[in-house]
Amino acid sequence: MPRPTFPDTRTLQMPDSSFKVEPKGTIMGIGGWFRGDRGKDRDDQGVTVELTPIGGPPELDFLFIEVPAVDILRAIDGWKWLSLVGLTVIAVSAFGEVFLRDGTGAVFQIDTIEGKLSKVANSIRELTAMLQNSEARDELLFGGLVIGARNRGLILEPGECYDFKIAPILGGQMSVDEIEKLSFTVKLHIAGQLHEQVKDVPPGTTIDQVTISS
């Protein structure tokens, strides 16, 4: 389907005209998203893509999405400020959360809510075993929210993922009513730049708006 387009400058206005952040530094306009080369098949940090099927309950079929490798690499370019050197992408969730493994086989997750890279399992086998449990699916894949979104008629098309209308880091609510569909590449790249800009803002800082420039 056609990729969503944005004007050169996009302003995200908070519901109450302001929000407070918990991390620490300064905030600036979020610019240059999709800075990466659209034709490359390997990230500048050596990140590669080898999507791996994860078996289990039927709902896992829609809790993960298939995304072309080039789009995954374009999207994680917005997260280059994290240490992703040498990691391999193995899966992408319906909410655009990316799972990667390192050279030892350990599995990590790019957490788009907290804005960090977290170890979630010692191996793909261990991750698969974890995801047989509904609580783990809710924690790692937002399983309940995905089912709720589908029940609302929000069925993902190729290249799409779920997102919240207003990012939780900006004060948005993580509820079924606040879910929308968005291009995976757009969602993940912008989320990475957003977290990069707010990660060093002093606790309690009030920010009126965030501007995203192309």
From TrEMBL:
Protein name: T6SS immunity protein Tdi1 C-terminal domain-containing protein
Domain T6SS immunity protein Tdi1 C-terminal span(s) in chain numbering: 122-195
InterPro entries the record matches: T6SS_Tdi1_C
Organism of derivation: Rhizobium johnstonii (strain DSM 114642 / LMG 32736 / 3841)
Pfam family, one: T6SS_Tdi1_C
Domain of life: Bacteria
